[in-house]
Design brief:
This protein is of the alpha/beta class and about 300 residues long. The chain has helices spanning about 5-10, 60-75, 90-95, 100-110, 125-130, 185, 195-210, 235-240; strands spanning about 10-15, 30-40, 80-85, 115, 140, 145, 160-165, 165-175, 190, 215-220, 245, 260, 270, 280-290, 295, 300. The longest helix has 15 residues, at about 195-210.
């Protein structure tokens, strides 16, 4: 497919939102530009959809995503590339290679960080562990306690990045596994309340670590209209503080642009999710200076 056709079919979301963040790490008022790219629920879709597909003809594919990421990095080298889980399960590539191919391709695209989705346990926790040597990026999950499993010490609660003078803290969240994943697949993994964990993590990252941006890499779902009591990204944003951006997964929600909500302190939080199967690539641009993070409402852009 020609690049123009690919551009017209690949969605990337950009938002510039005034968050009023203190930039303690800056010495001058020079504006810093950080681009955050993200995927979720790719589900082992390596190839693009065929031309005769009824919903997504010629869309997606790792090669196209890689070309798109490379072109964005040429615009701005200050990029973080993140994935919100469910990397595994969905095509024969996973059935045959068990996740090796997915991790190798993500490493080639230079992903910086990912969290675990429920389908990443489909070959058991040992199956996930066996593929980790192929991942040249880290995994974070703050509310999964892996201390009695083979993942203990390998999956951290959070990771901090330094990007051109911007200190970014990213923590991970996973969905409840009971009833969703066979117990024998996740074994002694303990699921903890995502709201309480998020408040602890965001406080550590914002107040103690003095991060300029705090990102939650979430696989708990965007919203559950039929079960409003179930914790989701929208509820998480409203019930916590110190989170600047929630990058979501699990519900395969296609958003044209990030949702902006008020947190527990009446400050803006961005929530974004880009559907599934690698059809879309999320893009969010932050412009920060020594006093504030300034931006204005954006829209979905074709890249």
């Amino acid at each position: 497919m020609k690049r123009r056709a690919f551009i017209e079919k690949t969605a990337a979301t950009t938002a510039f939102v005034g968050l009023g963040l203190s930039m303690s790490s800056f010495k001058t008022t020079e504006t810093k530009h950080l681009t955050i790219l993200h995927t979720n629920d790719v589900h082992s879709y390596i190839d693009p959809f065929p031309p005769n597909h009824p919903k997504n003809p010629n869309m997606g594919g790792v090669a196209r995503r890689a070309a798109l990421i490379e072109s964005i990095r040429k615009e701005n080298s200050n990029v973080l590339l993140l994935d919100a889980g469910d990397i595994f399960q969905g095509t024969p590539y996973f059935n045959y290679y068990g996740g090796e191919l997915e991790f190798k391709l993500m490493s080639m695209m230079q992903y910086d960080l990912a969290t675990l989705g429920n389908h990443d346990f489909d070959n058991g926790i040992e199956g996930f562990y066996a593929q980790l040597p192929h991942a040249k990026f880290d995994f974070v999950s703050a509310n999964y306690d892996f201390k009695n499993t083979v993942l203990h010490g390998l999956v951290k609660p959070y990771k901090i990045f330094y990007k051109n003078g911007i200190k970014v803290g990213v923590f991970g969240l996973g969905v409840g596994l009971d009833g969703l994943v066979d117990k024998k697949n996740y074994k002694e993994t303990v699921y903890n309340d995502p709201v309480a964990v998020s408040q602890d993590m965001s406080s550590i990252l914002k107040q103690q670590e003095k991060c300029d941006l705090v990102i939650c890499l979430s696989h708990i779902g965007y919203e559950y209209k039929n079960d409003p009591a179930k914790i989701c990204d929208l509820q998480l944003a409203a019930r916590t503080k110190d989170i600047d951006l929630i990058i979501g997964g699990h519900t395969h929600t296609f958003l044209d642009k990030p949702t902006v909500l008020k947190n527990a302190e009446d400050k803006d939080v961005l929530i974004n999710q880009v559907g599934c199967y690698g059809i879309n690539l999320g893009r969010i641009d932050f412009y920060l200076d020594s006093d504030t993070a300034r931006s204005k409402a954006g829209k979905s852009i074709t890249v």
